[in-house]
Amino acid sequence: MTDITRPVLPPLPVPAPQDDALFVDSIARGFRVLSAFHGASGPLSLGEIATLSGLTKSAVQRIVHTLRQQGYLRRDPADRGYLPGLRLLDHALDYQRLNPEIARVLPVLMELRAATGERVDFSLRDDLRLVYALRFQSKRGFYAASLIGTSVPLYCTAGGRAVLSRLPEDEAASVIARSSLVPYSSPTLTDPAAIMARVAEAREAGFAIAEEQIVAGEIALGVPVLDEAGRPIGAIHVAGSLAEWDADSFARNFAPLAMTAAGSLNRG
């Protein structure tokens, strides 16, 4: 299996409406600078940060200096630009340890990993994408599949289609219409009607299957996790290799386990 080559980028922070007296624009600009690193392949210069953030170079220079002094940015050792700083990990840790959903899912996901022997993940929905919050690797683990915070689109992933299957049909269609629908691999479905057909299959089965939609050679199964109102907040995923499984055998072996795991977490 190969690595993900086109990351799904979260949106940049946007300016507040002019009548929002509580909005602190300088803080938003700081987050725009930090968000410039989404999808970066290496250090960024001040000019590159300005281009990616949509801010002026003079504003970026001041913000970068401040963030560097606070430990949220660092200078590249080869002096080629700037990189995220270590203190950003403190906030990732705070999110995980203070999020009650992650605390509830952790033991369930560990049990599912032991039962399947395959990679298992838990992701949370953020509008058009899923963000991986917990990941347990299999013997075939690879770098991108180990990173917390990696995001994938709803329209072409097993977890995403599982989430869409628990939304009203018109809402699911709206999500697909607002998505970029770019192909990650040659088998990636980008036709809205074909995607909605897979969503309908997931609604009927209670789980979704996706083959090579993002990663070559990978098959994945997704089951939605629901809140008190029956709305999907995220998904549990089981992922394996097409060298070992076909869709029918993968679903037969792992759908009952994943659905039981998700069912123990559903609040509805």
The biggest beta sheet reads:
6 strands, antiparallel
Structural class, by secondary structure, is alpha+beta
Radius of gyration: 20 Å
Q: In CATH, what is the class of the largest domain?
A: Alpha Beta
Write the CATH fold name of the largest domain.
Answer: Beta-Lactamase
Helix content: 40-55%
* Tally of domains: 2
Distance between the termini: 36 Å
**Tally of helical runs:** 9
Describe this structure in words.
This protein is α+β, with helices and mostly antiparallel strands. The chain folds into two domains: 1-85, Winged helix-like DNA-binding domain superfamily/Winged helix DNA-binding domain (Arc Repressor Mutant, subunit A), CATH 1.10.10.10; 99-265, GAF domain (Beta-Lactamase), CATH 3.30.450.40. It is built from nine helices and eight strands. The strands form two sheets. Strands 5-4-3-8-7-6 form a six-stranded antiparallel beta sheet, sandwiched between helices. The protein has a two-stranded antiparallel sheet with strand order 1-2. The longest helix has 19 residues, at 247-265. It is globular and about 60 Å long. It starts with 24 loop residues before the first helix and ends with a helix.
